[in-house]
Design a protein that fits this description.
With 337 residues, the chain is of the alpha/beta class. The protein has 15 helices and 9 strands. Strands 1, 2, 3, 4, 5, 6, 7, 8 and 9 form a 9-stranded mixed sheet that branches. α7 runs antiparallel to α14. Bound molecules: (2S)-2-hydroxy-2-methyl-3-oxobutanoic acid.
């Protein structure tokens, strides 16, 4: 009798599991720009790992770094995901901002003075509104992670004042906002993908770049001539876990819940890794890069203010383009953080 009951239950389980399993793909591809051990790659790997574990392998996700699913052109990632060429991504707001203009908000120069300000945006009404906009674009956003505060480096000389940027050839990525910011500072910006950035820095085709400290150290930029690094915290780069809408809708409600919770857990882990050695009393990430022979410049509040002043026009201009209501909301969330 007992055996019969068990067999019956097993049969039932098989029947209920079948439709979902049959609909699922062999593998879901997650696009990222950088792999582990960059905090970004770690966050994406963690997502895949947690989903694999929690669905008993029903949903298999694999990370494809280097924006390889879009031939290295990271600013095409969002469109590819929307169209279903890419199933899912852990993507940078910078790389998606050419298609979703509101995502430029995180690249407004000197909007977010500290980590609490980033959190006030991603975890508050601004984050909600941005997720709503992404949903309107046939993409399902689930959670946030972090690339980090983007610091400026170059091969020529230390940067302490806007004047020091004059004439420097800078590699930038994303929307024209980055061109505008560096042009306002007197530099000579060139848009290029991450895949092209390292060769351009190596040959001296460009003098400098801006990226989070973790990207600087893991990519060993000190070895390609980037000897001067200024900690100006001018913008920070949150990451978003998202899926193509049809892929999302193909999952059972139970699996949707698992995929979403796994993204939140992986995001929290990724943020912790991204901020390691950069918060509170722990300045070890900065000390490590200085120990590699890089001249690290920490600006005084007055020195930093000169960069803020030089980019106010760009801020005002892009506040209009992004949407004044959204930016006002961001300013309010930051003031009340
Ligand atoms: O290309 C960059 O600079 C990077 C890796 O930080 C992004 O994808 C935004």
């Amino acid at each position: 009798m007992r055996i019969l009951k068990l067999a019956l239950l097993a049969g039932l389980a098989a029947v209920t599991a079948l439709p979902a399993a049959a609909e699922y793909k062999e593998e879901y591809k997650i696009s990222t720009v950088v792999p582990a051990p960059f905090p970004w790659g770690i966050a994406a790997e963690k997502w895949a790992e947690l989903v694999g574990e929690r669905t008993d392998g029903r949903i298999k996700m694999k990370v494809y770094p280097g924006a390889q699913l879009v031939s290295g052109d990271q600013t095409k990632e969002f469109t590819a995901m929307r169209r279903g060429v890419i199933d899912m991504a852990v993507g940078s707001t910078i790389n998606w901002s050419p298609q979703v203009k509101e995502l430029n908000i995180f690249s407004l120069p000197f909007l977010m003075p500290d980590y609490a300000a980033i959190d006030a945006l991603t975890q508050g009404p601004v984050g909600e509104q941005l997720f709503e906009i992404l949903r309107d674009n046939e993409v399902v956003p689930l959670a946030w992670a972090e690339n980090g505060y983007r610091e400026v480096s170059n091969s020529k000389h230390p940067i302490r004042t806007p004047d020091d940027l004059k004439g420097l050839k800078m590699r930038v990525v994303g929307s024209p906002l980055f061109n505008d910011t560096f042009t306002a500072l007197g530099a000579n910006p060139t848009q290029m993908s991450w895949a092209d950035a390292k060769p351009a820095l190596t040959t001296g085709a460009v003098d400098g770049q801006e990226n989070p400290l973790s990207v600087f150290t893991i990519a060993k930029m000190q070895d390609i001539g980037q000897k001067n690094l200024t900690m100006w915290h001018y913008v920070a780069d949150p990451l978003i876990f998202a899926l193509n809408k049809d892929v999302w809708e193909s999952f059972t409600p139970e699996d949707q819940e698992i995929v979403m919770q796994a993204a939140k857990d992986a995001g929290a882990h990724g943020i912790e890794v991204a901020r390691k050695g950069l918060t509170g009393d722990d300045n070890s990430a900065v000390e490590e890069v200085a120990a590699l022979g890089v001249e690290v410049i920490e600006l005084t509040p007055e020195e930093r203010q000169a960069f803020v002043d030089a980019t106010r026009g760009v801020y005002a201009d892009w506040k209009e383009k992004i949407g004044p209501d959204l930016v006002n909301q961001a300013e309010e969330s930051i003031a009340n953080r």
